[in-house]
Amino acid sequence: MSVLLWILICLAILAGLYLFLIAPGRDRPDASALMGWLYAHRGLHGGDVPENSLAAFSRAVEAGYGIELDVQLTRDGSLVVHHDASLKRVCGADLRICDITCEELCRHPLPDGSRVPLFSEVLSLVDGRVPLIVEVKHHGGAARNAAAALEHLRAYGGPYCVESFHPLAMRYFRLHAPGVVRGQLAMGGAYRPGEAGAAAHFMLKHLLVNALSRPHFVAYSYPEDRTPAMWLMRRCFRPLLAAWTLRSQEALDGALARGYHLPIFEGFVPRSGARPSC
Predict the structure, then answer these.
(1) Which of 113, 191, 240, 267 could form a disulfide with 217 if both were Cys (CB 3.0 to 4.6 A apart)?
(2) What is the pTM assigned to this prediction?
């Protein structure tokens, strides 16, 4: 057998392996209730209304937008809605949520004077009126947070899906609640030091963690989505796609034109009538 043929065989094997790694879940649950909505990132916040607050979620519901929010556990097992691992940026206290109790958390209010809400409070407020994209954070343990989120969501009657940057959070849903629509968060662009290390950024950028989470949708940073991984994902598997975080009408229009189904916006009020097609 010639050297060229061996090279072609090896390349074919590598290509097949890569497609296996990035493949989404095969049996996608019905996601029609999630379609046709714009999603307010951390609620419809701005001005005197803080992100991930009950006021921001109430505004989103009243305006007719779906909601994206973040959940994580306190040290004593209360599932709260907050993005960062620490309270420093939003509440001014250099404390990690997973290291403090819910009672201690209440001593550090949001900028409007309200407290960081419990996930159960948000579910009661929304009450199925708009769909939710629930991002499960990894702070304090991805699977632990996923288990708590699932416990709350089992009793919730409204439309929702879940997503996470951490594949083990989505693997938990894959194993314990395969009928829940789940998404793998990922990002393109150059590596920027932050929560994820360089290796994690590489794995997420090229969708290699999909082998663990087998997501029903991919939530990718827009417009950093012009990568070989996303090109193959779109053409070979045609999954649902969520775009984050769209910070202008131009970005929203661009994401919709590129076929994103779940657009997540922040920092502006979308133009009336700008809705994705189902």
Answers:
(1) 240
(2) 0.95
